[in-house]
Every structure is written in structure tokens, then in C-alpha cells.
């Protein structure tokens, strides 16, 4: 099992590297994000351990951007940022979070668990006629043209494409695509209108009376 350690504190990097090697892992260790780029370009890893604060910036943003591009290597954040908000945002993009100071045996056990977990492949591209939605890259194309959607517009379209050809009710769209606990139902109708304009003709979103909305591939 091969592990990448990205930690700018030289003493701690050496200690983690030595402990993981002693536990039977193959380990590469670097001190910043540019060097991490180099290692990730030439090696395949079962787990990556990132300090949050690095010379090139917060590694959370780095991991988030790689995740958006389909990178699926399990990530453990090893950091002194220990507040609840830091933990929550770290787990949003990583797979585990260990705060400093820590016991090396705990780190070894958590790295081993991540190395052994099944890494899913990128989610499949969803299609309806000439409309394509790539969940991994967060991209939508119509007839090959890249479209710009807001976060909520993307979520609504992804749900419609996942459920096609079945209709999705306004309530389900509100519950799964809006952050608010009780969004205004009229906002769904407005957003559907915006989506229809962005997706251009021929129409692909159909209103189903008393049932919601569904995608229908355009007729040839």
C-alpha cells in the first residue's frame, strides 16, 4: 500500500514517514503542493495525508479541485485546525481528519483503513438526447456546447437526469436541491424556466400535471 504524505514541518514529516514505513507502507513525503503535484503525476497512491496549512495554501482547496476533476484517492487531513467548522469542511472533501497532537498508532490505523477501502470510479456521465451532464467534472453540455449553470440549477438538472423518464415532484426538488429547510415552491418554477432557457431548443424539460417535471429526449 502506497501513501503520499504532504507536510511542511520537516521533523513531523520525517516522523510520519518513518512510522508509516515501519508499519509496512510504501511512503513518499513532500513539503508543499507543487511537489505533491509531481508525485501524484508519476505515482499511484492508496491514500494521501495532507497537512491543511502548506506554503502553497490550504490543501483543502487543492483536494477539492482534484475531486472536482474526478480524483478519487482517499485523503486524510492531518492538521492543527481543530474547531468543529474546520472538521466539517475537512470531511466534506476528505475521508478522515486527525488533529495535532496525535498518537502515531492512531494515524497508522486510520491510514490503513483508508488504503483498504474500495475507491469508487468517477460517476457515469448522464445523457438525454444531445444533453450530457458529467457529475465528476461538474459540466453540462448541449450538442457539444458547454453550458454555465448555478449550483442549484446543476443539482436540479442532475436529479431530473438521474430519475428520467420518471417525473420529479416540486417537493422532492426542494428537499434535495435547496439548502433552505423550507424554500418557496415558486422558486422551483422560476428555476425550471431559467434551465429551459439555458438548455435552448428543442425543449427537453416537460411539465407533468400534478406530478412535477421530467426530461424527455427531443424527437428526431
Counting DSSP E segments of at least 2 residues, the number of strands comes to 13
Mean model confidence by pLDDT: 89
The biggest beta sheet reads: 5 strands, parallel
Stretches where pLDDT is under 50 for at least 5 consecutive residues are none
Tags for this model:
220 residues, alpha/beta, elongated, 4-stranded antiparallel sheet, 5-stranded parallel sheet, 42% helix
Short overview:
Helices cover 42% and strands 22% of the residues.
What do these coordinates show?
The chain is an alpha/beta fold and 220 residues long. It has 8 helices and 13 strands. The chain has helices at residues 10-22, 33-42, 59-68, 84-93, 104-116, 151-163, 170-177, 185-199; strands at residues 2-6, 26-30, 47-50, 53-54, 57-58, 75-79, 96-99, 126-128, 131-134, 139-142, 145-147, 205-208, 212-215. Strands 2-1-3-6-7 form a 5-stranded parallel β-sheet, with helices on both faces. It has a 4-stranded antiparallel β-sheet with strand order 8-9-10-11, covered by helices on one side. A hairpin with a 2-residue loop joins strand 10 and strand 11. The longest helix has 15 residues, at 185-199. The radius of gyration is 22 Å and the shape is elongated.
